[in-house]
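Project outcomes to date are best conveyed with an example. Our students and postdoctoral researchers have been running inverse folding experiments weekly, and each run begins with a structure described purely in tokens. The record below, which covers 187 residues, was selected by the lab manager from last quarter's runs and is presented without edits.
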């Protein structure tokens, strides 16, 4: 059986984005968590063409329980799971995990299943009817990450992240992004 995640040895615990949560986060974390546009574009604005994607996992599998609940997916339904590292010249910036159900891939005309090394943000933010449905926030301790993720992204402290439910033509997907220390230095 293929692994459900390169990044996690167990599912992160998420906090629903509620009124007042934003102000409890460090300022640099707020800046990235509540970024209204594409994180990829924000990185490109800062680093230019040095932004690259390293694919860590790309496979059909059943998402974690909280991911299935967020997307209202049945337990036995496979979705495309994609985990990547966005980096600039080898400097790790953002880890991302995306859950894309087959119905969403269908309405996106397969663009989402054949991203290769293209950042997801470049693709989904080009859809005119992209909707942001809801968001959760997390602070992940080192013990939640796999050893492979710790090594790949040089993680040696708790990492903040957000996960957002997006919809294209009313078909949802879940995008989780984790802000590595280097990216939090960019304001």
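After processing, the design step wrote out the following sequence:
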């Amino acid at each position: 059986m293929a692994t459900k995640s390169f990044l996690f040895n167990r599912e992160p615990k998420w906090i629903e984005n509620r009124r007042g949560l934003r102000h409890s986060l460090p300022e640099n974390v707020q800046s990235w968590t509540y970024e209204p546009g594409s994180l990829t574009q924000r990185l490109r604005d800062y680093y230019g063409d040095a932004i690259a994607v390293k694919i860590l996992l790309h496979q059909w599998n059943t998402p974690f329980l909280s991911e299935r609940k967020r997307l209202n997916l049945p337990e036995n339904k496979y979705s495309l799971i994609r985990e990547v590292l966005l980096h600039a010249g080898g400097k790790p910036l953002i880890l991302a995990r995306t859950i894309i159900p087959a119905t969403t891939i269908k309405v996106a005309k397969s663009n989402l299943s054949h991203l290769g090394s293209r950042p997801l943000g470049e693709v989904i933010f080009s859809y005119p009817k992209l909707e942001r449905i809801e968001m959760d926030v997390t602070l992940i301790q080192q013990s939640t990450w796999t050893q492979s993720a710790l090594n790949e992204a040089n993680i040696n402290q708790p990492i903040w992240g957000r996960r957002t439910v997006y919809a294209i033509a009313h078909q949802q997907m879940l995008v989780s992004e984790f802000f590595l220390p280097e990216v939090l230095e960019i304001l």
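The chain has a mean pLDDT of 91. The chain has seven helices and seven strands. The training component of this project remains on track.
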